[in-house]
Amino acid sequence: MEKSGISVAEDAGNAGNAGNAEDAQVVVVGGGPVGMLLAAELGAYGIDTVVLEVRAATSDRPRATTVHARTVQSLARRGYFPAPDAAADGTVSRPFHFAGLPGLRITAPASEPEPLLKESQAALERSFEAGARAVGVRVLREHRVTGVRQNPEGVEVMAEGPEGVRVFRAAYLVGADGSHGAVRTWAGIPAETRPATVSALMGLVRFTGERIPPLGWHRTRRGWIVTKTMADGRTLVRTLDWTGGPGDRNTPVTPAELRDRVSWIAGYDVEMAAPSRLSRFSDFARLADRYRAGRVLLVGDAAHVHFPIGGQGLSTGLLDALNLGWKLAFTVRGTAGAGLLDTYHHERAPAARRVIDNTCVQVALMRPGPELDPLRALFAGLLTGDEEKEGDGGDGGKDGARHLSDMISGQDTVVAPRPGRSSRWEGRFLWNTALVTEAGPADVIGLLRDGRPLLLLFGERGLPYAAEARGWAHVLRVVRAEPVPALPCDALLVRPDGYVAWSPDDGAPGAASDGAPSGAAADGAGLGEALRDWFGGPR
User: Fold this and answer.
1) Angle, vertex CA 499, rays to CA 497 and CA 505, nearest 5
2) What backbone torsions phi and psi does residue 201 show, to the nearest 5 degrees?
3) Which end of the chain is more exposed for a tag (fewer CB within 10 A), N or C?
4) What is the b/e burial string over 426-461, where b = at least 16 CB atoms within 10 angstroms of the residue's CB?
5) How many Å apart are CA 407 and CA 60, to the nearest integer?
6) Which residues is 458 bridged to in the sheet?
């Protein structure tokens, strides 16, 4: 049966267990890396959190191994990765690809962490789970959620575990249960979908014959073979084929099917032994119409699904968790503005749509037919055509390759500013910058690590804003710093996730300051309104 868009489990034992419900403030359904990160964030803010995960342990099945620049930068601001030298100059670039074409370089400021982190999804999940447990999160494995009830005051979650049926009452439920999870359906959240066009297989093998596919991304007239040597000497092989339709993802892959597909695409017999971890996937795409339905929210693959190329899915899901974590925690604690939780959907759904769109472009570009060779040649030129030429005085270019680099790495993300009284700083990510504060040397990453919003006041012109912020001392960290050329403004209000929430200055980021306050007057006008919008009223 359905009630208020939420499925109610028809379990005769549920009614009897409801009176013995276990209380929590947030229940997270799904304990993959995204769910565990969200739980760790909530626990760090003191939120009583329960994770319900159906698996008994973390799976070591090969999955994503790339975490992109904006995700690494954001995780560093929350203390999950070390901070680099904030005074470092210049940029750092690492090679990557677009649609299997080499030449793309992911570039980030040298003051930020490495622009590409190579780490397995399983390792990240274990790390985030350890962090969640360390801050008191209850992680319950081998628990399958069977139903959800929602009312204006909260949610009730039924789960079957090793000890039978358990019922949890919470203020909010977050679905982090992946692409095949049930929370989105239970919540009555519809989704926009795009049908699959490609059939893909994956598995770990040992090639044994005389002819083996080359390492890396290899295109033939029939499709693609992508190979990677693993630490134990086995090869992770993936095939992409546009001829037979996507098939049923739930149909098990046999060793013969994988061998035959690799051989057919390669155009010669490929022998392999000890196949394991076989699976199939496609470019089916889905985007939830909304990320929130009352007290139920979605993160990661539960909200968006796309072709798994380049680690964008993992990175996007982790950014979902970092965006939602502080907003949900502040909402539960009563230190959130009236519309704060709704900004989660408004900020993260467009980011997911950009990923879905760019992966669809990559799949189209990867079709093996010769009719696409001119387009591939054009893109190959774009990927390498923005390198700075000697004497041009440029910064390496912001068109073509740099545009693709920032898109793939998430560094093009600018969150929508508040309507009305916003400066051109608002909504931009604040790069790590070396600062001299009253307490001594500091940097942006270090100042954000305690999870509080940050008000930076620069020099004498920034001091008047301190008085306006006193009413938010319960939630806000105020830091006085010497003016720095890289941040030519009087003050910056920075969200816990590193994005600028307010500034009085109208000058574009990076522009030189004329020495006089601009935008809002130096009596703090505009700051109080921004603090109220983001973090509720003063106390």
Assistant:
1) 150
2) -120, 155
3) N
4) bbbbbbbbbbeeeeeebbbbbbbeebbbbbbbbeeb
5) 29
6) 481
List of residues 6+ apart from 193 with CB closer than 8 A: 284, 285, 286
What is the residue-wise DSSP string for 173-206? EEE---TT-SHHHHTT--EEEE----EEEEEEEE
Q: Supply φ then ψ for residue 414, to 5 degrees.
A: -130, 120
Q: Are 477 and 452 a contacting pair, CB within 8 Å?
A: yes
Q: What pLDDT is attached to residue 8?
A: 38
Cβ(508)–Cβ(427) under 8 Å?
no
- Residue 95 CA to residue 102 CA, distance in Å, equals 8
Structure confidence at residue 310 (pLDDT): 83
CA distance linking residue 125 with residue 120, whole number of Å? 9
* DSSP symbol at 135: T
What is the model's pLDDT at position 422?
Answer: 65
pLDDT tens profile 114-144: 999 999 999 999 999 999 999 999 999 999 9
Q: What angle do CA 430, 436, 442 make, to 5 degrees?
A: 60
- Cβ contact 163:140 at 8 Å: no
For residue 10, count CB atoms less than 10 angstroms from its CB and return exposed for 0-12, middle for 13-18, buried for 19 or more.
Answer: exposed
User: In which residue ranges of the chain is pLDDT below 50?
Assistant: 1-16, 387-397, 507-524
What 3-state DSSP class applies to 355?
A: helix
The half-sphere exposure of 15 on its side-chain side, counting CA atoms within 13 A, is 3
Are 97 and 402 in contact by the 8 Å Cβ rule? The answer is no
pTM: 0.91
Q: Tokens at residue 327, please? A: 């907003």
What one-character DSSP code corresponds to residue 264? H
Residue 510: per-residue pLDDT: 42
Read off the DSSP letter of residue 209. Answer: S
Residues paired with residue 205 on neighbouring β-strands, in sequence order: 235
CA dist 437 to 266, 442, 496, 504, 517, Å?
A: 61, 7, 19, 20, 20
Burial call 106-145: b when 16+ CB within 10 Å, e when fewer: bbbbebbbbbbbebbbbebbbbbbebbbebebbbbbebeb
CA distance 534 to 440: 29
Contacts 24+ apart (CB under 8 A), 151-159: 151/4, 152/294, 154/295, 155/27, 155/295, 155/296, 156/18, 156/21, 157/27, 157/29, 157/52, 158/9, 158/11, 158/14, 158/17, 159/52
Distance of CA 268 to the CA centre of its chain: 40
Q: Which two tokens stand for residue 287?
A: 């985007």
Return the DSSP state at 372: G
Structure tokens given for 342 = 């709704």
Distance, in Å, from the CA atom of 134 to the CA atom of 475, rounded to the nearest integer, reads: 23
Instruction: Report pLDDT for 404.
Output: 92
